[in-house]
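INFO  loader      accepted 1 record
INFO  loader      residues=103
INFO  predictor   begin
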Amino acid sequence: GINAEYGRISEVTRQHEVRVEQINRQFVECIKERDVAKESLAENMEARRKLQANKENLIKNLSNQADENERLRAKLHMSTEDCIKLKKELDMRVYECTEQRKQ
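INFO  predictor   done
INFO  writer      dumping tokens
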């Protein structure tokens, strides 16, 4: 009768309440997971920004290093030519001294 019907309604209501509680807990967990994911994403974006900045600095440093290498190469080339000139002068002097001794 009515008691049985009321009992059945009570049971169904209780089951719904349990289900609603489960859903609420799942919802809270989802919110937490979402917040963690947002934080993780923000950290990844920051790390990515830092890597990009490092990459740009490395490229700039490499370019500066290449310029410096070029300057040093030019300087080395000049000093090599200077050495060749000096060697020729020295050879000439040695030759002159040798000729003078012969006389």
